[in-house]
Amino acid sequence: MRSVVKAIIMLPVRIILLPIELALIMASWIAIFFTSVTEWIFNLVSVLLFSLCLFSKITNIMPADMFWQGMITCFVIFIIPYIAQWIIMRIMDLRFWVWDIITM
């Protein structure tokens, strides 16, 4: 009796959560694709900027304060894709949580 009542209550919840699950799957796939592409580009830009800053500092073309500004910029450019991956992992966690509710 209790399982029948639970099944009746869970049916509308499952119907509501199924499109949300599909939207989360599509969002995570699209985000993973764009993050993969931008990670390659951002890492390339970061390495080029790092090399330029280091070369400029070694040859004394750039003062020390500009060197550190360039190094901080390199780090920020380098870390942006990893922050995006962390956000994508939280979306995937939400997706698995919704899937657990649907298959309950």
List the helices and strands and how they pair.
Blueprint: H1 2-58, H2 64-102
Helix pairs in contact: 1-2
Report what the structure shows.
The chain is an all-alpha fold and about 100 residues long. It has one domain. About 90% of the residues lie in helices and about 0% in strands. It has helices spanning about 1-60, 65-100. α1 packs antiparallel against α2 (about 65-100). The radius of gyration is 23 Å and the shape is rod-shaped. It starts with a helix and ends with a helix.
The major beta sheet can be summarized as: none
Number of DSSP strand runs: 0
Q: Report helical residue fraction.
A: over 70%
Structural class of the helix and strand makeup? mainly alpha
Distance between the termini: 17 Å
What coarse outline follows from CA principal-axis ratios?
rod-shaped
The number of helical segments is 2
In the predicted model, the low-confidence regions spanning at least 5 consecutive residues are none
pLDDT averaged over residues: 90
Topology as a string of helices (H) and strands (E)? HH
Strand content: under 5%
- What is the total number of structural domains? 1
What's the Cα radius of gyration?
A: 23 Å
